[in-house]
Amino acid sequence: MLLEDPPSQLISHTIQNFNILPDKTCVSRISESLSTLQQARDLRLREAESSLKRLSRQLSTLSSQHQELVSSHSSSAHASQISKLDTQKFRVAKNVSDLEMETERLQTQLAEFNARLEELEMQGVDGEDSGTGGQLDDEVLLRLKVYRSLGIEIERDGKGDTWNKVVVRNDRRGDVHVVNVDNRKFSRFWYANYFWDNL
């Protein structure tokens, strides 16, 4: 009977009936795999911690730079500076406009003074006509007066013997046009149309 056999023999026979070598091999492989996996996880964890520390340092650096920029830049001071520059820009533009208007006024006044001076020179010291080449004809003097009444001043050139400079004034628009007459360039008809267009 089996019960009469010694227990060691029974255990030996029982062990021989169970083949546990494949299970031991499998458990060994699983243990190795778990160990490898744990090592890989530890390595990735260390890399993640290192990356996190590096990013934390960068964040700290950028945060301190941002704080420095914010503390050094005042939005109210910037807005005040922009407002001040805008005010200066408008003031300069107004001054330029005023100077342009004053220049036009002075040009008109200068043209009037030149016309008056020319008229006085033609009248001479005693109020009579006196020219470099003799007295002007009444017809020419009448034409000059008519032209002046229309706003057209005719002046001599630098030598004083040729009437080739015309100043056209438009008091309504405040415009003054100075034209050097040269019949070789344009015809009398062109000059007449130009003068009438600017009156």
Automatic annotation (TrEMBL):
Xref: Pfam families: Spc24
Keywords: Cell cycle, Cell division, Centromere, Chromosome, Coiled coil, Kinetochore, Mitosis, Nucleus
Source superkingdom: Eukaryota
UniProt-recorded name of the protein: Kinetochore protein Spc24
InterPro entries for the chain: Ndc80_Spc24, Spc24_Fungi_globular_sf
Residue ranges of coiled coil: 96-123
Major localization class: cytoplasm
The keyword Glycosyltransferase is annotated on this UniProt entry: no
Presence of keyword Cell cycle: yes
Quaternary structure (record): Component of the NDC80 complex.
One GO-annotated biological process of the protein: chromosome segregation
Organism of derivation: Podospora fimiseda
Family from the record: Belongs to the SPC24 family.
